[in-house]
Design a protein that fits this description.
The chain has ten helices and two strands, in the order αααβααααβααα. It is mostly helical and about 270 residues long. It is globular, with a radius of gyration of 19 Å.
């Protein structure tokens, strides 16, 4: 909040932003707001590490670039599968649209969001819960909190919150498996970026301009409507199925060694 309040004041008086208005917000508002959140997140992490005499690894903050790229490919797969299914069954028709420079902004904007939310949700919340509770309880509670983060989003639905919660459980499981948020950040980034900047779907209730212009041919229950792919029953089923597969066949899917949790012990 200390980092966010100055940003709110800047947006209000410098950029003449009425914070009571609903999205979509101009790029400059999205950028300054998320920069403020990023600064706040980094600051709190610094205080935690110094004040509690921890290592960053105890918060799962370890840069693993190969895992990051695997996560990006994994997140892209989610949206490609959703696109193929909905296009094949006449639920959504994806038509090519004019390319917009918004694509370049969204590329970095969604990366920023992924970093912020993964540091908070998996880096801080999951790691703290993990110190006192079982893996399952820690994953469940942290993923529910992650879902509730989106409770105030426009056009939110029960299915939308359920899908986000399930995806949070998946990213938490990946984090515990690798001992790092790197793969979860890549997955999170691709999930939002491909969904919005490429497929043109809303991202958690936020309108987007993409390379494709989706035409909804069925009910919001299947298309996700104004909330985006997360609001679709199809995406919820896909997410749950992938979650089960990852839990059962982790090594075969990613080919990475399970992280020794003792590596992340508090120091």
């Amino acid at each position: 909040m200390v980092a966010f309040i100055p940003v709110l004041i800047i947006n209000q008086f410098v950029f003449d932003w009425d914070f009571r208005n609903r999205p979509p917000y101009p790029n400059v508002i999205n950028l300054t707001t998320n920069l403020g959140m990023l600064v706040g997140t980094i600051w709190v992490t610094y205080i935690t590490v110094r004040g509690e005499k921890r290592k960053l690894s105890s918060l799962f903050i370890i840069p693993l670039w190969k895992d990051f790229l695997k996560g990006f490919g994994f997140g892209t797969m989610f949206m490609i599968v959703f696109m193929i299914i909905t296009q094949s069954f006449g639920i959504i028709r994806f038509e090519l649209a004019d390319f917009s420079k918004q694509f370049y902004f969204d590329f970095f904007f969604f990366l920023m969001i992924a970093v912020i939310e993964e540091i908070v949700s998996r880096g801080h919340i999951l790691s703290i819960l993990k110190e006192k509770y079982s893996d399952f309880i820690s994953l469940l509670v942290s993923s529910v909190i992650f879902g509730l983060f989106h409770l105030g989003n426009d056009h939110v639905t029960v299915i939308g919150l359920s899908t986000i919660t399930a995806s949070g459980f998946l990213m938490g499981l990946i984090t515990l498996r690798t001992g790092s948020i790197s793969m979860a950040v890549g997955l999170h980034w691709a999930w939002n970026f491909v969904q919005g900047a490429i497929l043109g779907l809303c991202v958690s209730g936020q309108d987007q301009v993409g390379i494709f212009a989706p035409q909804f041919l069925s009910s919001a229950l299947l298309t996700g409507g104004d909330f985006g792919a997360e609001g679709s029953l199809i995406m919820l089923v896909i997410t749950i199925l992938v979650l089960i597969l990852v839990y059962r066949f982790w090594l075969k899917i990613f080919g990475v060694r399970l992280k020794d949790q003792s590596d992340n012990a508090q120091v």
